[in-house]
Fold:
Amino acid sequence: MENYDLVVIGGGPAGLAAAIEARKNGVEKILVIERDRELGGILQQCIHNGFGLHVFNEELSGPEYAGRFITELMSMDIEYKLDTMVLDVTDDKVIHAINQQDGYITIQAKAVILSMGCRERTAGAINIPGTRPSGVFTAGTAQRFINMEGYMVGKRVVILGSGDIGLIMARRMTLEGAKVLAVVEVLPYSGGLTRNIVQCLDDFDIPLYLSHTVIDIKGNKRVEGVTIAEVDENRKPIPGTEISYDCDTLLLSVGLIPENELTAQAGAQLDPHTNGPFVNESMETSRDGIFACGNVVHVHDLVDFVTEESRRAGRGAARYIQNKLVSNGQAFKTKPLNGVSYIVPQTVRIENVEKNLDLFLRVRKVYKNVKLVIKGDDEVIKEIKKRNLAPGEMEHLTLPVNSLTGKSFEYLTIEVKEEA
Amino acid sequence: MYDVAIIGAGVAGTFIGRELSKYQLKILIVDRENDVGNETTAANSAIIHAGYDAKANGLKGKFNAPGNAMYDEICEDLDVPFKRIGSLVIGFNDTDHKTIQNLYENGLKNKVPHMRILNHDEVLEMEPHLNNTVYSALYAPTAGIISPWELAIALAENAIENGAELKLETTVTDIKKEEDSYTLITDKGDFTAKYVINCAGVHTDVINNMVAEPYFKIRPKKGNYYVLDKGIDLVNHVIFQCPTDKGKGILIAPTVHGNYLIGPDSEFVEDKDSVATEARCLEYVKETSLLSSTAIPFNKVIRSFAGLRANSDLDDFIIEEAKGAKGFINVAGFESPGLSSIPAVAHYVVELMDKIAGGLTPRADFNPKRRKVVRFNELPEEEKKQLIKENPLYGKVICRCETITEAEIIDSIHRKAGANSVKAVKKRVRPGAGRCQGGFCGPRVVEILARELGVDEKDVPYDSTDAYILTGKTKNEK
Amino acid sequence: MEKHKLICINCPMGCHLEVTKTENGGWLVEGNQCKRGTSYAIRELTEPTRVLTSTVIIKNGFLPRLPVRTETAIPKEKIYKAMDVINKVVVEAPVKVGDVIVENILDTGINVIASRNM
Structure:
């Protein structure tokens, strides 16, 4: 068995930032394990720009953003293994992994950071009626084929779901010569960022049908067409609103799901609201010394936030290894109330918070001109005016630690308050 | 000139082909699809029924329980996943209880062993996630679950190892009846055989009518199913509902791979090629299944699909020489319990052949075993270590949902009756069958297939040859 | 008075902007929460530009395609023509991030650069 201070599982943006930050905070022996053939994770196929506005104050492409971290990681001589699959993480932090060079390896770590990212929801998960022909792709799979392998996946395309990857692929496929006929979203609002709707759809006159869904797929071999229809408030198709398209491809951008099979194997508890592990202020899961960050915890819209969160996990793991994390003292849980679907972190031990407490949350629906009210039990700590809140855009709140110290409350709650 | 031509490489055609390969016969199996077990065999409940449900006095009653009993040996020989987990037919009231008693009586007639009728408490003790409203159940411990397409693939592989020939993507368009033989006219040329066995599933009537008087009609019944993710604690046995005048009920069945199937409904369809799911039918499946257990987690559905049953208007299996066509045997109307019965049916067909041909000579060199399939994920740590040492490609995981290695995928491509499409790989070793449904491993599987088959990636199909995945290269590169 | 409605795309805020052409030929931008909204709105109405990202064929690389982008935004109406140029490019590995792949594309004064090492 090999020994490491810290093993980071997943070499995407989360794992890279966490490993680098742990090294900067004094952790010696670090290993990053990546299942793909190179570091960088999904960013390597996200060739569009817009990454890094917060972290670098620049607009970079995905590979450029990843590249900066990879270069830094290498300059620090942090070890990594590629094409390596972790089969198991035990609750006492033994990692079982396999690859071609080393065979079957077991590693004892002092701390573990889980940064496996997320996967795409599939056609099966959303249960589209019709045939099961070739030509139905998740947007991310299509993105990999087109951007990395250099293959086109279709000529006439309908996209179901207005998540960011779907919007990005609408533009990408259009520029590569395909005809994108429509983007169809079952909700009355888009799940993607506004800038992507403007730059990826409006720029190319691609229609976006809100409150619509795909009700039939045709074709026994390759997709030959899809039918869409408007849906009512219960998401049931409204007869008479059908539109049929002749197309050879249906792309799906219907949501991302944190990849937490290893997290569950390690015995960390999962939050049903985020589908990720419960974490504390230091990004530690319910398992002692097992940390998590990035899309494995909750799905982010911006990689910049993944980086910030992962740096916190890297610092947390470093302090854990150095026995500097305080496990007693003032503590509270966070709890989403009216209009808020989740809050990360779910627990806070105030003495481990540096200057500010960062809270991430999503709201349940679109709100205009409302307040986010933060309370400690029933006492209002802060109110923040918001002109625009949408489920597709994660909210980041920062509370100065001195606004929380010395107060005794069990729950920190956040709710949306609409104007009377 | 072949001795026997078998039309259809589903579980019936491959089983009979493999059974006949024990004898000194030149055997040809043809199928219009580009893989064996690609139609009815690929989309059904995957259950080996105990046999209490099959009508006594008919062929279904005759073959089901004996067929069931033969499964341990065949699956051992061919290394096919099979688990004898038992089944429960659950009832909720007096009427259901009467049905259960009738099924029990019918089961006795069909010589189904070890059946028991359980009361409310006994049922819930065995299956705590069933609804508390359950009244009683018929327990049949001999019922099993299997991977039907892996069975057909294994049978085809073993038949080929024993000398049979398999011709895929070969559609029989007509059959010429000659003096002492039949010539199959196909899109890939003509093939002459002394005897023909018609195992063409939903098309058996069409094939029969090419040489004999029409005397039955296949009216397929479609069934819609959901597949649930792994890692769910739901039921340990196959759970049936009592058949009522409203229908046969919806089952909950564990699969040999650790998922669950929920389904099927049953509706006649005209189109024999239509396996499209329908929202209305899936909704019916969902609602009806909740009568058995409200604990079914429908948010864990990873796929839905539909399959056809090769139902005939004669209401039983048709296993006989066609009238006026000597040496032409129909294996038709082979709906449920066809899969359960096929081992016994195959033996019976051999007997028929023996009579027709005036005696068959066994082959001395028949090998009943198939080379074992490595299922890396299921092996203990030490064996995993050893395998990677022997072949480092066992250290390269391609499908992470199911932990499938590159070595397993390559093996599935190069075996006899090997995989030549993404779906064919999935049927054999399961990359893409997990919760991501091929989102991550799909491109890698395409790459491996292209490399191993020596073709360009864009010529690797998803399923049948026309089911292309890629439309060409970007930048108009050739 | 000439009025336009726009959504600012500088950041995820996605401010809904209302832009009015004033009598003296200037622009009045409302609804933005930062200065970048004003300049975005005026530019979007007078000379819209976009950063173009794509790939080019690469020989002997780790992958068959190299991701590229325009160094800064190019005029929006030149996007398709720029794609025509980019689609014809073939480069040879190794390439470093930031290497110029197409110099001064369509005389815009803007280079197309590699967006990763390969």
Summary: The CA atoms of residues 21 and 27 of chain C lie 5 Å apart. DSSP finds two helices and ten strands in chain C. Strands of chain C lie at 3-7, 16-21, 27-30, 49-50, 53-59, 65-70, 74-75, 90-92, 100-102, 112-114. Residues 3-46 of chain C form one domain.
